[in-house]
Amino acid sequence: MNDKSMRHRYPVLATLLTLVLGLSSLSSGSLAADKLFDFGELNVDLSKVQAKPESAPVPAKQSPSQQLESTPQSPAPKVLPKDDEASIDTIVAEEQLKVAPVKVAPSTAGRQQVQYPVPESRDVIEVKIAAGSEKRGWFEEAAQRFMADPDRNSINGKPIRLTIDKIGSIKSGTLIRDGKSMHDGRNEYQVWAPASSIFRGVVEEAFSGGQLFETDESVARSPMVFVTWAPVQLAVDDKIQKSMSFDTVTEIFRRELNGDFIDPNGRLYQFGFTRPSSSNSGAVALVTMAFEFFAKDRGRYKLRMEDLENPSFQAYLAFMKFMSDQSKTSTGKLAEPLMQAGYGGQPLSTVYIYENLAVKLAFIRDANDPDGAKPIIRYPKYNLVTDHPYYVLRHGNSREQVEAARRFKDYLLTRDMQLLALQKEGFRPVSTEITNEEMNQVFGDFVEENGLIPDLIKASQVLIPRQNGAVIKALIETYDELGDPSGPRL
């Protein structure tokens, strides 16, 4: 029995073998597939391309014409015929979209004084980690192993107790920023582990009088992706002829308002992303929408407060809010129904999620319904790679708590825990100790069948530069306050 049939007939065993234990050896086909990937360069250089493009060995792409070449040795997504075209402005005008204006309010965050260290008189060193749902499984298993290791699990005879709190990145950051994580002079959290660093500035700028974060290292990477059921994605490629982006989604919505349905089976096109005020991926969706709207011809554009009061931009945001599903408060909750029910068993046509969840979705659907519609992974034309930082908080914590939290961070960066993150959750490791062979064991099957792109430098045409945290916060608040749009077809 070959690997493929084994996975189809024994999906639970296959999931354990592939996502938890990995494969002990590679077939000759897998060895050949190893030549398709270049994960080593990615592990070294991706952060430079995104955060410091001026120092990157490969220049940041700013237009479809700069999309890097696809070769059998290193595949890249196709650049479609109309990728140079942007239609958001035209759609807002032609559909006569309007919305009651929202005034962008200035930040009201109070300045808190960093309190560090606080006395530690308890018998147990408590470390509570605010982590997004996408990392919970990895963190929980790593925490159990850490606490069972006598060489790591205590400081000066006091045991370390790790607790993983599954909470949205934006929600947890807001609690810390507003002082609501403080109780009787102590911080409820010792670690803030959001999905990305986009909100860091908002939290950090609310404090003065000392260093807020002891560490700020990335522990994994996962780009954002659009995942669409194959019948719908093929129709999008044929009719819209653009790479997946929020511009493309807007065009699909406009067509359907005019009676031109994209789904070949006649279903209404439904698009989902998470609630921006609660979840990092939803906030990233808003940043990407804004970047597409204002920076079509300017790859290094930084969003400004005055941009947020642009009437056409607010009408566009209101339109996307009205037409999309943002009922889920975490990315895991958004992806779960697609994993469980597939194309026909739930309403969503496309979701905007992390790549690691897309890999899980593809694996589960293939194992449980090998003849059903496949989820197709498409990397946004404009992308922001989530960097999964691990911020050890000094404020309201003892030296022992900070040291214990730092030790767990170091543990997450060990080869074994990076391999666990890859095999269990589908994260791209930050450690260069993980080999191409090990990456291929998890990702190799999803390249041809589902559209996974190994080299993230090739995956997207434009990498969004780092944006101002205060502007992101104001963008989320503006979005929350927007009412329903008006237009002749709404």
Describe what this molecule looks like in 3D.
- The structure is a single chain.
- With 490 residues, this protein is an alpha/beta fold.
- The chain has 2 domains: 35-106 and 223-385 and 439-481, D-Maltodextrin-Binding Protein, domain 2 (3-Layer(aba) Sandwich), CATH 3.40.190.10; 112-221 and 387-433, D-Maltodextrin-Binding Protein, domain 2, CATH 3.40.190.
- The protein is built from 20 helices and 17 strands.
- The chain has helices spanning 3-9, 11-21, 28-33, 39-51, 88-94, 136-147, 169-177, 200-204, 230-239, 246-257, 280-294, 311-323, 331-341, 355-368, 399-412, 415-425, 436-443, 446-450, 456-459, 469-481, and strands at residues 112-113, 125-131, 154-155, 158-166, 182-183, 186-187, 191-193, 207-208, 213-218, 222-229, 271-272, 350-354, 375-378, 382-383, 385-386, 389-393, 462-463.
- The chain has a 6-stranded mixed sheet with strand order 3-4-2-7-16-9, sandwiched between helices. Strands 10, 11, 12, 13 and 15 form a 5-stranded mixed sheet that branches.
- The termini are far apart.
- The relative contact order is 0.22.
- Residues 1-57 have low confidence and may be disordered.
- Residues 1-32 form the signal peptide.
- Residues 62-73 have a biased composition (Polar residues).
- Keywords: Signal.
- Residues 50-82 are annotated as: Disordered.
